[in-house]
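Customer ticket, subject: "Can you confirm the structure for ATP synthase F(0) complex subunit a?"

Message body: Hello, I'm evaluating your service for our small team and ran a test protein. I'd like someone to confirm that this is what the system normally returns, since I don't have a reference to compare against.
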Amino acid sequence: MTRHPTNSLLIRPLALGVRLTANLTAGHLLIQLISTATITLFTTIPVVSLLTLLILLLLTILEVAVAIIQAYVFVLLLSLYLQEN
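Agent reply: Thanks for trying us out. I re-ran your input and got the following:
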């Protein structure tokens, strides 16, 4: 079986898109879980709720940084793949 360069040309950007989507989705799910815990704990244990709110804020900052890095890597690798062909 021979390997065609067109297959590689199509699969590489698709794999990059899947990886980017998976990383961003995982971050959003984690933020959703922690925000739900924050809202739920607010009525029962307000001190713990404030702690989870702080964690949520820090996680949101981390999520923005990860999104920027992921976008940079996506564009860099995509441009390298396109230059290769």
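A couple of notes from the result: The longest helix spans residues 5-44. The mean pLDDT is 86. Feel free to reply with more questions.
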